[in-house]
Amino acid sequence: MPMLFKPCAEAFDVLPPKISENSYLGDTMTSKDTDPEHTITSGFFKVVPGEPLVYTYPYDEMKICLETNGDMIISDETGTEIHPKRGDTIYLKKGSTITFKAEGEGAYGRFFYCGLKTFGQL
User: Fold this and answer.
1) CB–CB of 28/64 below 8 Å?
2) Label partner for 35 (CA 20 to 30 A): which of 23, 29, 72, 121?
3) Taking the chain (122 residues) in consecutive chunks of 10 residues, what is each chunk's mean pLDDT?
C-alpha cells in the first residue's frame, strides 16, 4: 500500500500514553519496510505542568508545535531556551539533552514529531 491514513480521532484527538508525570508521547505511524537504522516514526507529544521532562535523544527528531497554552519552555544543555508557539518547527539533534516544561494553570504544549527511530522506541 503506497499510502497509510489515520483519521484525527485515531491520532491527534487521542491523548498519547503517559511517559512521565507531566508528558505524553504516542507513535502513530512508522516506515515498516526499512531497516531499523533508516526507520522514521511520527506521532504526537504533549506536556502539561509538573516536573520538567529531561530527555537525552538517542536519535534525530523534528517537532512542529501544534498549539500551546500558558508558557511552554524548551531548553537544551547549552542554556538555549525557546517558548514555541503554533507553527514553530524544532530540530533536536541526536545526543542533545532537552528539557520540556509547561508553566501556569492550564498550561500545555502539543506537538507533532517525526524521528529517526523505530515504533515504540523512547
Assistant:
1) no
2) 23
3) 75 76 89 83 94 95 96 97 97 97 95 91 82
